[in-house]
Amino acid sequence: MSLEEVRGEIDAIDAQIIELLGARQQLVMRAATFKRDEHEVRAPDRRARMMVRLRELAVRHGVEPTLVERVYNTLIDGFIELEQQRHRALTAGEVAGSAAPRPVEAAPGA
Questions:
Q1: What is the pTM of this model?
Q2: Max alpha carbon distance in the chain (Å)?
Q3: Is 77's pLDDT higher than 80?
Q4: Are 34 and 20 in contact (CB under 8 A)?
Q5: Within a 10 A sphere around the Cβ of 6, how many other Cβ atoms?
Q6: Environment class of residue 105 by beta-carbon count within 10 Å: exposed (0-12), middle (13-18) or buried (19+)?
Q7: What is the DSSP string of 47-106?
């Protein structure tokens, strides 16, 4: 296998990862509709449980657990920021007297 072929396979995996991140983002935005405040958005207990589970998965699949932890900490921080924005928008609508918040569909291709 040549370097270009290896890079092509890496690019294909990256495309799959991005597609999965889009699916995860849609679920995170949906989850925001169930949470009452920013502490629930941050969900530190869930995050701690996730990190244990993810490290175990990493070991099982032969991936460096520290790398997985670093990647997921960055990923989770980014999704928490998006979810907080969504949650603030939802609660602002409630405060303004609007009807119950409706889940907003992610942008096409998200």
A1: 0.77
A2: 62
A3: yes
A4: no
A5: 10
A6: exposed
A7: HHHHHHHHHHHHHHTT--HHHHHHHHHHHHHHHHHHHHHHHHHHHHHHHTTPSSP-PPPP
